[in-house]
Amino acid sequence: MRPSPTRRTVLTATAAGAAALTATGTAEAAPASADRPPATAQRPTRELRAILREIDAARIEATVRRLVSFGTRHTLSVQDDPDRGIGAARDWLLAELTSCAAASGGRMTAQLQSYVQEPAPRIPTPTKITNVVATLRGSVTPERVYVVSGHYDSRVTDVMDATSDAPGADDDASGVAVVLELARVMAKRRPASTIVFAAVAGEEQGLFGSAYLAQQLKAAGTDVQGMFTNDIVGSATADDGTRDPYTIRLFTEGVPSSETPEQAALRRSVGGENDSATRQLARFVRDVADNDATGMRVRVIYRRDRYLRGGDHIPFLERGYPAARFTEPAEDFAHQHQNVRVDDTGKQYGDLPEFCDFPFTARVAKVNAAALWTLAQAPGTPRNPRIITSNLTNSTSLTWARGPEPDLAGYEVVWRETTSPEWTHVLPVGDATTHEVDLSKDNVFFGVRAVNRSGLRSPVAFPSPQS
Q: pTM for the complete prediction?
């Protein structure tokens, strides 16, 4: 185990701009900026690079165009027509995921997950809502689960119009195409933990499909340690024509939607508004997916979602699961939630595939793949991290519970200035469950992450005070 840095060496390093302390072998630090990775960044493994090379923009395009071909996929549209409506899209998606499962050697299963939604503001009569779900079971820690989704329903200007053509190419055939491509590529491989690939319905009518999926997982006691929804990831062109084809936004809430009054009081006491499990998940995505292997910059947005909008990660957040939303860098609202038409100026409206950028969506799929695969292969997020506060002291004692992974190698303590958005220092502490750092807990934020024998790191766990 490396010795803890002294307070003097840490503060000197911080004052010098977080330069690496590798000469003494005590801690590693680097300033995080837009053009430099965080100190916690992880380089892609050979296995991950092979996965990323298999992601195919042409297949993503074919999926988007096939979903558009069903005319409308409105949640209230016909469910028993083989060629048009949400029922036809549902059956095609099940066939595609079943085909992926056939290549998995029995590790992946595909199924329909249905229920009847009673009348609600955008559901006038009892309506069957069906998610299409494929589960790739983990081979080492299958009880740990990660979820990726897109919604396959679509809409036009009038959210209750279930008959007009609603192509929904960007919103959200693009997200479903990402999910299907990930399922196809990963089905042939053996993740340590379980990955769930979901095409959900009812999003435009009120997040109904994802709420049902999240509730089913919660009722079963499922250990979901991360969820991503891909919603509107099909274009890099904004409404003014400007393009940003190498950036993807990741929306991440700070104050948890599921927070209890007691948890809120604790958060306020320690200043943990920027250290929810979801914010740690976002930092992890930056660590593993913002690099040359994906060709993308992950722009983390410190909001749950955009103004006046909401996505399928929200029901997961409401049930206490870390969850975040991928969305293209700048939207063109003429190609979302619009009837297909040409106005008097010749401007084309409607969410049509000709306004999509399929190589961009393929890069978004690579970002998802880098995050999901590394999460599934790395150790789980450390449990029960605590900062000991029983005595007034200028050093910091941390404790945590040892994880169950058979290839667990040890842990790292990380920290940053309270004004920094990224972790700037990393200290290996070995296969231990306690460590003391000669640095005041009053001045910085601390975290703990696990490391396995392959060198893969978990997301950071933010400690709570323990008197």
A: 0.93
CA distance 400 to 108: 33
Report the 10 Å Cβ neighbour count for 200.
Answer: 31
Per residue, the 3-state secondary structure of the chain, as one string, reads CCCCCCHHHHHHHHHCCCCCECCCCCEEECCCECCECCCCCCCCCHHHHHHHHHCCHHHHHHHHHHHHCCCECCCCCCCCCCCCCHHHHHHHHHHHHHHHHHCCCCCEEEEEEEEEECCECCECCCEEEEEEEEEECCCCEEEEEEEEEEECCCCCCCCCCCCCCECCHHHHHHHHHHHHHHHHHHCCCCCCEEEEEEEECCHHHHCHHHHHHHHHHHHCCCEEEEEEEECCCCCCECCCCCECCCEEEEECCCCCCCCCHHHHHHHHHHCCCCCCHHHHHHHHHHHHHCCCCCCCEEEEECCCCCCCCCCCCHHHHHCCCCEEEEECCCCCHHHCCCCCEECCCCCEECCCHHHCCHHHHHHHHHHHHHHHHHHHHCCCCCEEEEEECCCCCCCEEEEEECCCCCCEEEEEEEEEECCCCCCCEEEEEECCCEEEECCCCCCEEEEEEEEECCCCECCCECCEEEC
Average the pLDDT over 339-363 and give the result.
97
Q: Are 71 and 85 in contact (CB under 8 A)?
A: yes
pLDDT at 96: 98
For the residues 5-25, what does the mean pLDDT come to? 45
* Assigned token pair, 122: 């955008």
Please report where in the chains the tokens 């099940």 appear, as a residue: 94
- Neighbouring CB atoms inside 10 A of 242's CB total 10
pLDDT band of residue 170 (cuts 50, 70, 90) is very high
Distance CA 54, CA 51 (A): 5
Q: How many CB atoms lie within 10 A of CB 223?
A: 14
